[in-house]
Amino acid sequence: MVHLNRIYTRSGDDGSTGLGGGERVPKHHLRVEAYGTVDETSSVLGVVLARPGKEKATEWLQSIQNDLFDVGSDLCRPGASDADGRVDATYTARLEAWIDEVNSDLEPLTTFVLPGGSPYAADLHQARAVCRRGERCVTALMDAEGEGAVNPEVVRYLNRLSDLLFVLARAANSGGRDDVLWEPGAGKAT
């Protein structure tokens, strides 16, 4: 159990931060960037949840915010594997079930969707884009530190999460009927 009786420690005043195993790294370290971007994803989901007139996905999004702390926990511990990580295949499977449930009621896609539509959908698209950035940070960390540096289920989870946020955004746009669609070449002079 975490017990915080003081918010500041002054230990990061030199530009470093502590990882889960006690090792200190620069605050700009790729691992810190990865779990920081996961935290940012959760913060954007907090904005989504604060919006009035929330959809039925409220409970899911709150659960995902909790999951993202587990993802961050795995990321702050170098060498956390799928065997000792908190995030396992059940996390990703749950997202896949939700994706399938939401996607079954959406209008079929005929082109790419631009972020926007309703304010709720736009916030979900922003959360999706931040989640994708987090996924890129995690894969860069895996490349930089080698196999075993990161629980591989974290990448699968973030990949599915961004897919879920995409279909939830489409659902928030009247099941896709009010999506803002990409028009290839629309900016060319006629």
List the helices and strands and how they pair.
Elements: E1 16-18, E2 24-26, H1 30-50, H2 58-75, H3 89-103, E3 113-114, H4 119-145, H5 152-172, E4 180-181
Index terms:
190 residues, mainly alpha, two-stranded antiparallel ribbon, elongated
Helical coverage, percent range? 40-55%
As for the number of domains, it is 1
* Largest sheet geometry: 2 strands, antiparallel
Query: H/E order of the elements?
Result: EEHHHEHHE
Please, what is the CATH homologous superfamily? Cobalamin adenosyltransferase-like
Structural class: mainly alpha
| Average of pLDDT | 90
Strand order of the largest sheet: 1-2
Rg over CA atoms: 18 Å
- What is the CATH third-level topology name? Hypothetical Protein Ta1238, Chain: A
Task: Give an account of the 3D structure.
The chain is mainly alpha-helical. It has one domain (23-179): Hypothetical Protein Ta1238, Chain: A. 54% of the residues lie in helices and 5% in strands. The chain has helices at 30-50, 58-75, 89-103, 119-145, 152-172, and strands at residues 16-18, 24-26, 113-114, 180-181. It has a two-stranded antiparallel sheet. A two-stranded antiparallel ribbon has the order 3-4. Helix 1 packs antiparallel against helix 4 and helix 4 (119-145) packs antiparallel against helix 5 (152-172).
